[in-house]
Amino acid sequence: DGGITQSPKYLFRKEGQNVTLSxxxxxxHDAMYWYRQDPGQGLxxxxxxxxxxxxxxxxIAEGYSVSREKKESFxxxxxxAQKNPTAFYLCASSMPRVGDEAFxxxxxxxxxx
Amino acid sequence: xxxxxxxxxxxxxxxxxxxxxxxxxxVGISAxxxxxxxxxxxxxxxxxxxxxxxxxxxLIATINIQEKxxxxxxxxxxxxxxxxxxxxxxxxxxxxxxxxxxxxLIIQP
Lengths: 113, 109
Known about the structure:
The complex is a heterodimer.
Chain A: E1 4-7, E2 10-13, E3 19-25, E4 31-37, E5 44-51, E6 54-57, E7 64-66, E8 76-78, E9 87-94, E10 103-104, E11 108-112
Parallel strand pairs in A: 2-11
Antiparallel strand pairs in A: 1-3, 3-8, 4-5, 4-9, 5-6, 7-8, 9-10, 9-11
Chain B: E1 4-7, E2 10-14, E3 19-25, E4 31-37, E5 43-49, E6 52-56, E7 59-64, E8 69-74, E9 83-90, E10 97-99, E11 103-108
Parallel strand pairs in B: 2-11
Antiparallel strand pairs in B: 1-3, 3-8, 4-5, 4-9, 6-7, 7-8, 9-10, 9-11
């Protein structure tokens, strides 16, 4: 079955450590996205990529980094520069054409202690 | 930048009631999504609309492009419908979705 896989579902890290969240899709989608969700707020765009080896900052990119070396994979690194990293992180993918449906992973809940 | 407003923020209803959740946006869009998020956090896409109306089981979604407004209806609501329902809109490009804050729905038996 085609879909998006995020791992792990829950992640705990000590303050000051970098951590990488995995996102893999087998839908052959060109575009992939990372969003962050905080309590009481809508999901906000961190980074997106429309094609391999290219990506753009979203609304809240500070303290995060990404790579897109393969079409199927779009890992997100939460660096020690991110001041409030504890949040729910959601990966999505779609074809970039207008009207194409977006597909979502199950999310990773990151807790930094 | 598009602003997406959902109402109500919280809704508690009795099993069997007809539920309506509203979504308004400020700028023209290419598509609107209705999503469902359960307590574990995973998000499921319910509908994608660019015009008119779609129905899937007990769920109905409508959109009025001129008024920049969409509604999600649940008929014969059931406790398993309890979840957060999120409206998200897409502009003309591939720069992702803009999300509403969600409506937290609780259906009591």
